[in-house]
Amino acid sequence: MTATVSRRNTVLTIGKYAALAFYLGFALFPLYWLLKIAVTPDTLIFSEGTRLVPSAFTFGNFMTVVFQTDFLAYFWNSLIVSFGTAFFTTLIAAGAGYAFSRFSFAGKRLIIAVMLITQMFPLLMIIAPIYKIVAGLGLLNSLTSLIIVYTAFNIPFATFLMQSFFDAIPKDLEEAAMMDGCSRFQALRKVVFPLTLPGLGATLGFVFTAAWSELLFALMLISKNDAMTFPVGLLTFVSKFSVDWGQMMAAGVLALIPSCLFFLFIQRYLVQGLTSGAVKG
Amino acid sequence: MARIEMRNIAKRYGSVEVLRNVDLEIEDGEFIVLVGPSGCGKSTLLRMIAGLEPITSGDLLIGDERMNDVRPRDRDIAMVFQSYALYPHMDVARNMGFSMEIRGEPSDERQSRIASAARTLGLTALTERLPKALSGGQRQRVAMGRAIVRDPRAFLFDEPLSNLDAALRVEMRLEIARLHRRLGTTMVYVTHDQVEALTLADRIVVLNNGEVQQVGGPLDLYERPANKFVAQFIGSPTMNVIAATGAASTVLLNNGATIELPAPGDASAVVEMGVRPEHIDVVSPDDGDMTGRAEVVEHLGSDTNIYIEVEGVGPLMVREHGNIPAKAGDLVGLRVQPQNVHLFARNGTAL
Ligand SMILES: Nc1ncnc2c1ncn2[C@@H]1O[C@H](COP(=O)(O)OP(=O)(O)OP(=O)(O)O)[C@@H](O)[C@H]1O
Ligand SMILES: [Mg+2]
């Protein structure tokens, strides 16, 4: 009896790990391929097309990308846009999320409904109007335009995310702080804010990645080389007659670095955040 | 220290009336307990005193000043929440000293008050822990500590012991009683628990459906309930209430039994008679006012509870002191102690 149970447990455990391994392999394989092509010498890319490990390595692609293309400028532009977007979106979403979570006011349901509706339209539908608005403001080819547009698009989701984090913080805590002599703002700053750090981290991370990899608007609103963000810049590796795979992949690998660093930095907040959102207290 | 006065206070959420006509004067240093069934508005009343809930109409005075529109932080009142509401990111000492920190009081003064509160509550060894590393009872103590560090004008407690197990509850109850004796500060205490109410209170306020039913000392409420609700709410086990009619100084039960009241009076308005389980005596089957059959007998050691079905009257509960040799199925005689009978009119008021 106990033997069968423990055997079944072993089988279950093995099965679980096998499933995890399969998923991991599936998810990471494209990343591996990216890295592999980035370090494969140009001459071997097509001749050794499907070999898992290339027969020779080179860092030439990275060198070329960093020193002979505008990649660093794109990279810098992307950093500005992504950090700007993440900062402003999170700031606004935190305020709005707090209000949704704690206050009842006229029009609250309506605002929430409208925010949900904005998430329903395919982006393609609104590209033309957005282009017109941005052009009208004279902001074409500026990073500011991207920050504004990205912020506007990310606010609804980020607000709902922040609201759920605020909802998870018991109201009692703020009330206790107010009984202890805090004003509402002090209660927010000294009690609620420290407890929302995981939520802020998660929201920052989410918005940062979204802005970092956004292509459609960047492509539409930016045509000058010196304001290009990194995803648009990647396309410059595609010329009329050929694609420079090696350099493109090298640029891709470099582009992963800030996202990875960012998530490394916020991940301890993030993990806490995801559980504290799910389990109250 | 301050007295708290409520004048004709009402509370509405939209069209829902949660409290009405609340008039209450709480003397300086008094221990007032609010009791009532779930949803009757106890927490709401407490939160209005705290300033966490706006008052729809009426006046709230603390220390003879009108407080309706004063912010919670300026009322100088401490509150212990049912959930304890400890700040999870602060250690025990900082939790307790938080109010002084906010008021910008000097650090050494703060430390000494924290230390003395921690000593009082037996928390000295725990001051550097975070709340998540404390047991339920310890958290409860920290919540109390946070209140007493401040030396406020009044304490408010919203069911502070309801998350503790029975033994700890008794211990903390004594702790609170001791605290009140030592500090002499006005306390308003909300509870579901009769024993807490009866043991802690100088006066008990019984609420039902948003209205004050009766205010009085524990024994007043037990001996002279103002109406049927209070009669059944206070006292455990619950008072038996049976249909009855009255004439002059006699009460007539539905099974034909009569009970002579000790004091002559007019009992003609009576529709129900109440008698507490401890005020019915078990006698031999032919004696007494009526006879019934024991259905369940509970031997508690110090007491015996007997559930008796009396034909024409209904089920009655009887509590006898000590261990009496009755068992289920026995035929028993019951004698009602006439001096301890409560009579109610049709609208429930006591006569
Ligand atoms: N925001 C609100 N809107 C409408 N009704 C409310 C609101 N808050 C509380 N109530 C109602 O007010 C009544 C009193 O609530 P309150 O919390 O004071 O009850 P209570 O006596 O403390 O009950 P319990 O013993 O269960 O804690 C309840 O019937 C509740 O449904
Ligand atoms: Mg309550």
From TrEMBL, chain A:
A GO-annotated cellular component: plasma membrane
Coiled coil: none
Pfam families found in the cross-reference section: BPD_transp_1
Residue span, ABC transmembrane type-1 domain: 75-266
InterPro entries: BP-dep_ABC_trans_perm, MetI-like, MetI-like_sf
Main location: membrane
GO process annotations (BP): transmembrane transport
Membrane disposition: Multi-pass membrane protein
Key words, A-Z: Cell membrane, Membrane, Transmembrane, Transmembrane helix, Transport
Domain of life, source organism: Bacteria
Cellular compartment(s): Cell membrane
Residues spanning the membrane: 17-35, 73-98, 110-131, 143-170, 191-212, 245-266
Record family assignment: Belongs to the binding-protein-dependent transport system permease family.
Name this protein carries in UniProt: ABC transporter permease
Organism: Notoacmeibacter marinus
Lineage, broadest ranks: Bacteria, Pseudomonadati, Pseudomonadota, Alphaproteobacteria, Hyphomicrobiales
UniProtKB/TrEMBL annotation, chain B:
Record's subcellular location: Cell inner membrane
Gene Ontology MF terms in the entry: ABC-type maltose transporter activity; ATP binding; ATP hydrolysis activity
InterPro entries: AAA+_ATPase, ABC_transporter-like_ATP-bd, ABC_transporter-like_CS, ABC_transpr_MalK-like, ABC_transpr_MalK/UgpC-like, Mo/tungstate-bd_C_term_dom, NA-bd_OB-fold, P-loop_NTPase
Sequence ranges assigned to domain ABC transporter in this UniProt record: 4-234
Cellular component per GO, a single term: ATP-binding cassette (ABC) transporter complex, substrate-binding subunit-containing
Keywords: ATP-binding, Nucleotide-binding, Transport
Keyword flag DNA-binding: no
Origin: domain of life: Bacteria
Membrane topology: Peripheral membrane protein
UniProt similarity note: Belongs to the ABC transporter superfamily.
Listed PANTHER family: MALTODEXTRIN IMPORT ATP-BINDING PROTEIN MSMX, MALTOSE_MALTODEXTRIN IMPORT ATP-BINDING PROTEIN MALK
Protein name: ABC transporter ATP-binding protein
